[in-house]
């Protein structure tokens, strides 16, 4: 029923105990009557079956043949005749117990403290998870009605619970960002019509962006909504620059229509330059490979579409509305200077000092560049922040030779501890060989926590709180990890990160895996360090004498088949009903199948003489010894998987370095090859690509600016604004205890697009002033700084306030968004304080350098531009 719901891809059941009929043979009774387990198997297979029988094809009709060839109840199987001895029938009940039981006697699951079954539902690739879950929730009442009254269906974990809450928080963040940006307009322009025009441009651009997302087939998710939130600052940048320039012309006394046409015409090239160079910064994101590239493709495309839409709207709608509604500002005689005027006066004084001490400012720029490089090298590197999804997963590990009843008992002890924690909403757990669980020595826990507002700890803190309590249960360990929306593990894992060792020498691999595990356990940076080697299993070895077996006409296959009949829970038949099919299982009696002594009653029938041959005549049974329960492989080679969590404050990049250092310290041989898997592997790949991604973004921006300005010099002036943004982003990340994660990297890429806007506004005006007004470079850049100061401050504040809600990190899912906001806010703060003073100095230095190499005395201003 569940698998037929639209959008559902796979349905996995854990702890399922399907009904079955179990035939539990008594080996001593079989031996006394000269029978074997194969006799029981053949008797059941030949007397309970469901074969095609044909049909009666009459002249007037056809009638299908059926018979009572199937048996459905244990008592019916008990009456089966296995053989005849001395003319008397030997029934199955004479040599075995036939009972109604479960298909697998060594699996069990609980929901809380009640026995249950766990069902994991996965969506189809490309299916919308929210729509799929809504359909499942709609079907649950109907499915509940189909079940017996004693069976209750409840939802343990719904991933969309946090997704919906996270989307709601991002929507709230978007609203706050819009309001903050509008407030900036009102503060600086002090004119309602100008503020409303910018707000209208913002609204139209966002609506058009959602329409483009729909056309692209994108859904509203964490990454696309974050792209929209960040793009709010970009969208208003264009509108601010256009409206502010129109506002400046109105202040100069021009009419509404004339100011709109001239103001937008003057600034059109600048707006295009800003937006196209910003889009250029996103180009490397579109071509990123691997998992990270696939994740951020929608992010980059959404942001790019929003930016391009804003260019069109800002250069069309904004001038039109300004021509209709925007009037010249009125100034009263005794009106006090506004905030913008006072800020401009302070900046003008600082600018004169900066231009008077150009060498000092160049030194500041050089120091900033060096600090940015050193800061990137030194800052701890991470992958994705650990999210609080209100869900934790656990894997239990006990002694490899633990019995099933003991494992159940220890699991119930762990369950009492988990259930007693006040943060737990619901939980389930299972033991036994089922699904991804391959041995009785391992089990699973699934823990759903209360919403974040209703508990006093995060998921990570919850795990830390439980760890010492769980450690008090002897003989078993429960490894817990926080569930993540972005899960890159290839299968179930004990901990958040995995490291794989492989070698063609299994014994060598086992030895060095244990040494490395112990070495890392002694390092406080690693938590829950373990490996999947299960070498302590109890193995009872049977050494078959092939020559002796051959004398009786028996083979090793005959011996193996007989052993599997006894100890393998062998399916020997099945029966079908109208709705399902069920198995008949053969095994030894419960009192015998766990004892090595039962092998003394083990007989095989010789095909040569039909005599009963005891197993002791064919094989020697050794005492139990230690051996592996399972052997993992990676490709063709034996492999061992190490799993670990990280202590609070430890970056994944530091853990990678410490793990490599530990391998060197213990002297691990080169024949053992190690590699990270899952999230750690993706982190290593992204870490190697980070410098190239940043460099590619810089090159793309430089090329676009070079084409737009037809110059190879002043794009360098514009790009010189970036080092200060980099040091600001790194500094604030460090101060707030954040790693340089993938989200922080995206923030830096965004900064490359945002911060160079200041340089474009200054350089574009200065070049135009030199070309059209004949000003010297010093006069031109000074005039540019004063004239463009207000739009620079307004656009920077708009972008900063747009990212501020992301940095503050409130609500569900904020852990994923916060590093991006921190990087953007930190970069904008520092770059704004420095670039308004360093960029004019660098402009003048490059002008002098270009003028010395390319003198053009007849037309200096034009030559400088071209």
From TrEMBL:
GO cellular component, one term: plasma membrane
Keywords of this entry: Membrane, Transmembrane, Transmembrane helix
GO molecular function: xenobiotic transmembrane transporter activity
TM segment ranges: 172-189, 196-217, 223-246, 267-287, 299-326, 360-379, 692-709, 716-736, 742-767, 788-808, 820-844
Stored SUPFAM superfamilies: Multidrug efflux transporter AcrB pore domain, PN1, PN2, PC1 and PC2 subdomains (SSF82693), Multidrug efflux transporter AcrB TolC docking domain, DN and DC subdomains (SSF82714), Multidrug efflux transporter AcrB transmembrane domain (SSF82866)
UniProt keyword Membrane present: yes
InterPro entries: AcrB_DN_DC_subdom, Acrflvin-R, SSD
Record has Nucleotide-binding as a keyword: no
SSD domain ranges (all copies): 205-324
Annotated protein name in UniProt: Acriflavin resistance protein
Organism: Pseudomonas syringae pv. aptata
């Amino acid at each position: 029923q569940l698998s037929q719901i639209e959008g559902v891809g796979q349905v996995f059941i854990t702890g399922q105990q399907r009904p079955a009929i179990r035939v539990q043979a008594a080996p001593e009774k079989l031996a006394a009557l000269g029978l074997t387990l194969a006799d029981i198997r053949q008797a059941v297979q030949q007397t309970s079956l469901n074969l095609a029988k044909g049909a009666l094809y009459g002249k007037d009709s056809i009638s299908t043949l059926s018979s009572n060839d199937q048996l459905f109840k244990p008592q019916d199987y008990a009456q089966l005749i296995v053989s005849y001895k001395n003319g008397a029938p030997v029934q199955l009940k004479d040599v075995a117990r036939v009972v109604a039981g479960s298909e697998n006697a060594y699996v069990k699951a609980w929901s809380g403290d009640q026995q249950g079954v766990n069902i994991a539902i996965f969506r189809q690739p490309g299916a919308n998870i929210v729509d799929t879950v809504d359909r499942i929730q709609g079907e649950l009442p109907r499915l509940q009605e189909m079940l017996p009254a004693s069976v209750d269906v409840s939802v343990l974990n719904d991933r969309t619970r946090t997704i919906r809450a996270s989307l709601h928080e991002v929507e709230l963040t978007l609203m706050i960002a819009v309001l903050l940006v509008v407030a900036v307009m009102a503060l600086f322009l002090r004119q309602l019509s100008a503020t409303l025009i910018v707000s209208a441009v913002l609204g139209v651009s966002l609506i058009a962006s959602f329409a483009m997302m729909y056309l692209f087939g994108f859904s509203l998710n964490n990454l696309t909504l974050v792209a929209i939130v960040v793009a709010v600052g970009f969208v208003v940048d264009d509108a601010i620059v256009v409206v502010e320039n129109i506002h400046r012309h109105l202040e100069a006394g021009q009419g509404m229509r004339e100011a709109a046409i001239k103001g937008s015409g003057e600034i059109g090239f600048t707006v295009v330059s800003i937006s196209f160079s910003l889009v250029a910064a996103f180009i490397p994101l579109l071509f990123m490979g691997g998992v990270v590239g696939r994740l951020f493709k929608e992010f980059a495309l959404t942001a790019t579409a929003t930016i391009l839409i804003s260019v069109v709207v800002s250069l069309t709608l904004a001038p039109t509305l300004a021509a209709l509604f925007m009037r010249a500002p009125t100034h009263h005689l005794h009106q006090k200077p506004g905030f913008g005027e006072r800020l401009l006066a302070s900046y003008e004084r600082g600018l004169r000092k900066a231009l008077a001490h150009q060498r000092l400012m160049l030194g500041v720029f050089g120091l900033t560049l060096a600090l940015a490089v050193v800061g990137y090298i030194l800052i701890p590197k991470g992958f994705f922040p650990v999210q609080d999804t209100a869900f934790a997963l656990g894997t239990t590990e006990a002694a490899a030779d633990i019995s099933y009843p003991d494992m159940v008992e220890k699991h119930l002890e762990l369950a009492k501890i988990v259930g007693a924690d006040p943060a737990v909403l619901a939980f389930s757990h299972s033991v036994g060989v089922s699904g991804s669980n391959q041995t009785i020595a391992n089990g699973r826990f699934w823990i759903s926590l209360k919403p974040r507002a209703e508990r006093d700890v995060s998921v990570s803190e919850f795990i830390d709180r439980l760890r010492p309590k769980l450690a008090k249960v002897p003989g078993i360990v429960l490894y817990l990890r926080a569930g993540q929306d972005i899960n890159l593990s290839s299968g179930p894992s004990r901990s958040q990160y995995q490291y794989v060792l492989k070698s063609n020498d299994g014994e060598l691999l086992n030895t060095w895996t244990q040494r490395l595990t112990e070495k890392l356990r002694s390092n406080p940076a690693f938590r829950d360090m373990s490996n999947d080697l299960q070498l302590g299993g109890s193995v009872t070895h049977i050494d078959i004498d092939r020559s002796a077996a051959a004398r009786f006409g028996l083979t090793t296959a005959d011996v193996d088949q007989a052993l599997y009949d006894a100890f393998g829970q062998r399916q020997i038949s099945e029966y079908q009903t109208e709705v399902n099919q069920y198995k008949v299982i053969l095994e030894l009696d419960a009192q015998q199948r766990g004892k090595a002594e039962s092998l003394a009653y083990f007989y095989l029938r010789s095909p040569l003489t039909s005599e009963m041959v005891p197993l002791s005549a064919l094989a020697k049974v050794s005492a139990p010894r230690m051996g592996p329960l399972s052997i993992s492989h990676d490709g063709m080679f034996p492999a061992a998987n190490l799993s670990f969590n990280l202590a609070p404050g430890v970056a994944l990049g530091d853990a990678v370095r410490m793990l490599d250092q530990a391998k060197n310290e213990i002297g691990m041989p080169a024949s053992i090859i190690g590699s990270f898997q899952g999230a750690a592997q993706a982190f290593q790949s992204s870490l190697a690509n980070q410098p190239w991604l940043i460099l590619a973004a810089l090159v793309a921006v430089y090329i676009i600016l070079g084409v737009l300005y037809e110059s190879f010099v002043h794009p360098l002036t514009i790009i010189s604004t970036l080092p200060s943004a980099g040091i600001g982003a790194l500094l604030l990340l460090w101060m707030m205890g954040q790693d340089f994660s993938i989200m922080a990297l995206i923030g830096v890429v965004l900064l490359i697009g945002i911060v160079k806007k200041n340089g474009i506004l200054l350089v574009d005006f200065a070049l135009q002033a030199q070309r059209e007004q004949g000003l010297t470079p010093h006069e031109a850049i000074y005039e540019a700084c004063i004239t463009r100061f207000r739009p620079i401050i307004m656009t920077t504040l708009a972008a900063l306030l747009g990212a501020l809600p992301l940095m503050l990190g409130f609500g569900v899912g904020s852990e994923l968004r916060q590093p991006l906001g921190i990087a953007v806010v930190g970069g904008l703060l520092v770059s704004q304080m420095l670039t308004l003073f360093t960029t004019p100095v660098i402009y003048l230095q490059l002008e002098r350098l270009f003028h010395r190499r390319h003198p053009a005395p007849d037309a200096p201003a034009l030559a400088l531009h071209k």
